[in-house]
Write a structure and sequence with these properties.
It contains 15 helices and 23 strands. It is α/β, with parallel strands linked by helices. It folds into three domains: about 190 residues, FAD/NAD(P)-binding domain; about 120 residues, FAD/NAD(P)-binding domain (3-Layer(bba) Sandwich); about 100 residues, FAD/NAD-linked reductase, C-terminal dimerisation domain (Enolase-like, domain 1). Helix 2 crosses helix 6. The model has no long low-confidence stretch (mean pLDDT about 90).
């Protein structure tokens, strides 16, 4: 949508091929999911009212009303993804599957499209888990969860996908019981320093977690389901009213004719260069279909670069290390750039800077004292990566995506003015720890190196003076 509208505004002839709803999963899943997460955060805050208001009962969730609120959010945003909006920009919309038949030709329905540039933005599809009996229980996805007649009494989330973990926490805060069952550890591959506060929050919320277990089978049980798992050599049962699959997603690359187009790809996505150009110079790729792309938030970011490349504008090359991603639990985890482990393997010397969010007065005012900022810099202070866990992590990570893409240093970040009181004050505080500590370390090393140099030069001077004196004595004999 972003590329199509931008190219049309620049006077290009544009065709959009889409067999499903325009906007992809944005309207059907992403917006409902985030509306549900927002409701759970509001419910948590509402529960805190009893801390300072007497005679107030804890709020009861009206799920029917919540469902209407979610639908209202979708309705408010839907016009941005409407066919009428595209047609008003003279963009032709073909509601059919598209498939390359030649490097410069695509077929969609009864239409044959030849173009100078193509943009593939097919996104990702849900992974299917090989669980015996899964087809007998009609598992939910996020879209189906948000339109239930009533809140799930006991939700079983199968898988460790971060979105599934966040939804389990959300329904628990809205009044459901929640169980997470995963063959892998939760937050596998994440910095444990950032994941631990989230684990503690899940425990406080009363979420039942079975991780690193083997799922044997699943079967209906009355109006609910029963899941059989094996852990530590023992078979146990987990009962629930509904099942939500959270096995993650994989790039949608099948059935598009990439072989005919000469586009290199595999199950992990399409190969692209820094201009998001594929092995076919006519074809760009954007969003979750790109190999190595983070699914959420990548599409619009990619679209801006692809549009600049198509219009031959500067700034088309993408800084992949600057990509940010967010795990929408409470507290949220946001990361950008490379991790501490990656930095240590790539750089001989790094600096790790930390600052607790509790040190900001805004955190104390809002009664959200948990979490911290973790920065990874080079020896000279260049920002290599950032990780944040805590309130407003998704907003606090943004300056670091800019810093990483522009090669900025901790000193640059420390010089940014933040309004008072704001959680963003922790950004400058974390960065200033490098500024404050670095001069002492640098001065000490500089003095030591200078002393060694002087001593070495003194010895060389003595040797040179001795050699000159010897030659002088021989010359005057």
């Amino acid at each position: 949508m972003t590329v199509a509208l931008g190219a049309a505004a620049a006077g290009k002839s544009v065709v959009v091929v889409e067999k499903n709803a325009l906007g992809g999963r944005r309207l059907s899943e992403s917006i409902p999911c985030h509306a549900l997460l927002a409701a759970s955060r509001a419910a948590k805050k509402a529960g805190r009212v009893t801390d300072f208001v007497s005679g107030v009962q804890r709020p009861q969730i009206d799920f029917a009303q919540l469902r209407k609120e979610i639908a209202a959010s979708v309705s408010a945003i839907a016009p941005n993804y409407s066919e009428a909006r595209l047609e008003a920009m003279n963009i032709k919309v073909i509601r059919a599957s598209g498939r390359f038949v030649k490097p410069d030709t695509c077929e969609a329905g009864n239409a044959t499209i030849r173009a100078r540039r193509f943009v593939v933005a097919t996104g990702a599809v849900a992974r299917r888990l090989p669980i015996n009996g899964l087809d007998t229980v009609r598992p939910l996805d996020c879209a189906a969860l948000c339109v239930l007649d009533r809140l799930a009494r006991r939700l079983i989330v199968i898988g460790s996908d971060p979105q599934g973990v966040a939804l389990a926490q959300a329904v628990r805060r809205l009044g459901s019981e929640a169980v997470i069952v995963s063959g892998e550890p939760l937050f596998a591959g994440e910095d444990e320093e950032l994941a631990e506060p989230v684990r503690a929050a899940l425990d406080r919320d009363g979420i039942e977690i079975h991780e690193g277990v083997r799922i044997l089978r699943i079967e209906p049980r009355g109006e609910g389901v029963r899941l059989f798992i094996a852990a530590a050599g023992r078979e146990t049962q987990v009962a629930g009213s509904h099942v939500l699959l959270a096995a993650g997603r994989m790039p949608a690359v099948e059935g598009i004719g990439f072989a005919a187009a000469g586009v290199r790809y595999d199950a992990s996505g399409i190969e692209t260069n820094r201009r998001l150009l594929t092995s076919n110079w006519r074809v760009h790729a954007a969003g979750a279909v790109v190999k190595g792309a983070w699914e959420q938030g990548a599409a619009e970011w990619h679209a801006g670069h692809v549009l600049r490349a198509i219009l031959e504008l500067p700034g088309a090359e993408i800084a992949k290390d600057a990509a940010a991603r967010v795990i929408w639990t409470s507290p949220a985890i946001a990361v950008a750039g490379i991790s501490e482990a990656q930095a240590r393997s790539a750089h001989r010397h790094i600096c790790v800077l930390r600052w607790p969010l509790a040190e900001t007065e805004r955190a104390q005012i809002e009664r959200q004292p948990g979490g911290h900022i973790k920065l990874i810099t080079s020896r000279t202070g260049t920002i290599l990566g950032a990780g944040i866990v805590g309130a407003e992590a998704e907003a606090l990570i943004t300056p670091f995506t800019l810093a990483i893409s522009k090669g900025m240093t901790a000193r640059d970040i420390a010089s940014i003015m933040c309004p008072y009181p704001a959680m963003a004050g922790a950004i400058g505080s974390a960065s200033s720890t490098f500024v404050n500590n670095r001069p002492e370390v640098s001065l000490g090393r500089l003095l030591q190196a200078a002393a060694q140099l002087i001593e070495r030069q003194r010895g060389e001077f003595r040797e040179l003076a001795g050699a000159i004196a010897g030659k002088t004595r021989r010359f005057f004999r």
